[in-house]
Design a protein that fits this description.
The protein is of the alpha+beta class. The protein contains ten helices and eight strands. Its EC number is 2.7.7.65.
Length: 258
């Protein structure tokens, strides 16, 4: 049996081109700082989103290049990572866009939303710091859209679809809240209930379309009667309406009712 020759392991420098290719293709920003805060690596993603080439920034102090970062959370994170040798992360909620980075090729307008992490490491006896910057604009935008949709649905669930004033659910929540507040503060609270006389006969005679128009007109007039932001006019059900009047005594409530 003839033994097959074993290929020698590749030389350490044979993957240099591959590493450079990976850095160029990475879909996030990668930069490396030395112990003095000077930029020793700056990948293509950062160049595309900042308008600054690697040749332009090589050897520059990061915080001289971007003075607005000095004294901010990022500088603190870099210093802490280098001293403690522990990774640091910037909260996207508190640090939305620390770097002046923009959609590729624009270099102006609204900055991309960013997630930034700082990782210290050593190479031989030298200390370095890797900073990763991810564009989270799409994720943040989607979250905002979902929150907006949720708020819109919540608002719709509190509004009567026909008249546009508060519905029974909104009324129940508001009444419970104001009752507890009145008990806590020992303050007055009044409740008005109103219905439309002979509405069924009117609706049967003139039809549902005219009946709906009647309900809408009455609701608008009822809501317009309440001047204070804390007052709430609601459709209680059918042709019945209700109003919650915080800090209102019997005499004031009677005036509203008249």
């Amino acid at each position: 049996m003839q033994a097959k020759p074993i290929a020698p392991p590749p030389a350490a420098g044979s993957h240099t081109h591959l590493s450079a290719r990976v850095l160029a293709l990475a879909n996030l920003g990668l930069m490396v700082l030395d112990a003095d805060g000077r930029i020793v690596m700056w990948n293509q993603w950062l160049a595309s989103h900042s308008g600054l080439s690697a040749q332009r920034v090589q050897g520059s102090d990061l915080f001289d290049l971007f003075p607005e970062l000095r004294g901010q959370r990022l500088e603190q994170a870099v210093q802490s990572a280098m001293q403690s040798k522990l990774p640091q992360q910037l909260s996207p909620a508190l640090n939305r866009s620390p770097f002046p980075l923009y959609p590729a090729g624009t270099w102006g307008g609204e900055r991309v939303e960013q997630a930034v992490s700082v990782t210290p490491f050593t190479e031989g006896k030298e200390r370095f710091c890797l900073i990763e910057v991810s564009d989270i604009s799409t994720t943040v935008g989607r979250e905002r859209q979902l929150r907006g949709q949720a708020e819109a649905l919540r608002a719709q669930s509190y509004v009567d679809g026909l008249t546009g004033i508060a519905n029974r659910r909104h009324f129940d929540v508001a009444l419970d809240r104001e009752l507890r507040r009145a008990q806590r503060n020992n303050s007055q609270l009044s409740l008005l209930l109103m219905d439309i006389d002979s509405f069924k006969a009117y609706n049967d005679h003139f039809g549902h379309q005219q009946g709906d128009a009647c309900l809408t007109l009455v609701a608008e007039a009822f809501a317009a009667m309440l001047q204070r932001p804390a007052d709430l006019a609601a459709r209680y059900g059918g042709e019945e309406f209700a109003a919650v009047l915080p800090d209102t005594g019997p005499e004031q409530a009677a005036q509203h009712a008249e």
